[in-house]
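Reviewer 2 asked us to include a model.

Predict the structure of this chain.
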Amino acid sequence: MKYLSWVIGMLFGGVISLIAAWLIMYLGQMLAGGITSFWGEPWLYYSIVFPSAVTFSILAGYLYNKSEAANKKLWLISLCCAFIVSWYSGTIGAIFAEFLIRGTLEPINGASPNIEGILIWGTIYAFLFLPITTAVFRFLIDLLRRLLQRVQSL
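Predicted model (structure tokens):
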């Protein structure tokens, strides 16, 4: 059952990250003045799926072992996970997605990705949006905990 909880956490994280990436892309397009593509840019999906799937897989293993964790501890876990996922997706994930889309990090027709800027601003955004992402992660951890309790009762 422990391994099943890891798989459930990974699937949960993958699905939630796809939905979150789509919502972020869709809302961003609406705020920018119009929707140009229903699915948006693929780099956001590439950058957010991996850290979310790994994080929720680890969380599922933890929640399987400790089904009744204290509220304070869950908020602290939410804070740490929110920072890790947002920092990774905003820095390393964005650089990796840039590599997947362009095929290289070398300049193409004079344009190259600003790696230093991605690392600096990804870190700033991770800290800046921490209050929002922590609350969202706390909600998602509760959803994952309820899903695992439902699966364990079967």
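The chain has a mean pLDDT of 87. DSSP finds six helices and no strands in the chain. We have added this to the supplementary material.
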